[in-house]
Amino acid sequence: MQIHQDLDRITRIHHPVVTIGTFDGVHLGHQKILNRLGEIAKDIDGETVLVSFWPHPRMVLNPDNHNIRLLSTFEEKIDLLNEQGIHHLVSIPFTKSFSQTSSQQFVEDILIKKIGTEKLVIGYDHRFGRGREGGFEHLKANQDKYGFELEEISRQDIDNNGVSSTKIRNALETGDLSTAKSFLGRPYELRGIVVKGQQIGRSIGFPTANISVPHPYKLIPMDGVYVVEVEWEDVRREGVMNIGKRPTLNGQNQTVEVHVFDFEGNLYGKPLKVYFHQFLRGEKKFESLESLKSQIEKDKLAAMSFFNLKPK
Q1: Model pTM?
Q2: Is 152 in the same domain as 276?
Q3: According to the model, what pLDDT value does residue 279 have?
Q4: Which pLDDT score, from 0 to 100, does residue 293 have?
């Protein structure tokens, strides 16, 4: 996949089949649109193009809202789109100035002049341009002037699908991994760097990798204990993760820690990917470290059972 972050440096795209959107999470609804793009491109010997925006428009238009959480970072979205076989990602830097671009100017300057769009696929409810003024109606009314073919993803296709980034965020924030996974079409993913913690887990027989999540806008699921898989370099292993403030230890700040089964190596400084499979329980305060250790043992057994692993 080619990534274009400078509109002035886009080289010729062969018969561009285009869609527009932020595509946060690249969930099943997004995948339906991308699959349709691929079908059309194959029929006309063309190339698929997603025109997207970064930073996410809500982060620019509502800078004082520190509660904005996204399902995917820019890097994660690139990987997900690449897996979908998209040929080109045109990532437009979203600024307050750009937000004042009219829908007509957006179509003429970007879709036509810069990309050379031959076919545009757009959802019936997608809005674009200053004040969200543009949409399918505007495009349909000006189709002859713009000179590209237009295809609408119908209300029925979108509504029957029932998938949205908002629903997925709500599910993750309540520990509903089943819904999140069914809408994403895959386990939810979190990426971070292993940093040194207080090593209390090691002292009770459950060493953990303390993960620093570098992007404050990345959604971290509800505090609690999870069945996870962890990936680093060419290794993928099962484990159990705790997200929370560690009330038994009188913690004040949220931590993200994972105990990797049957692993004793050094992960400090390594980038990890965590895949969430099941929510086991909410975080709670225990009377003692011994009580905490007993519960962690139960959590580990439950996680191993999920993967059909036998204790050693």
Answers
A1: 0.92
A2: no
A3: 98
A4: 86
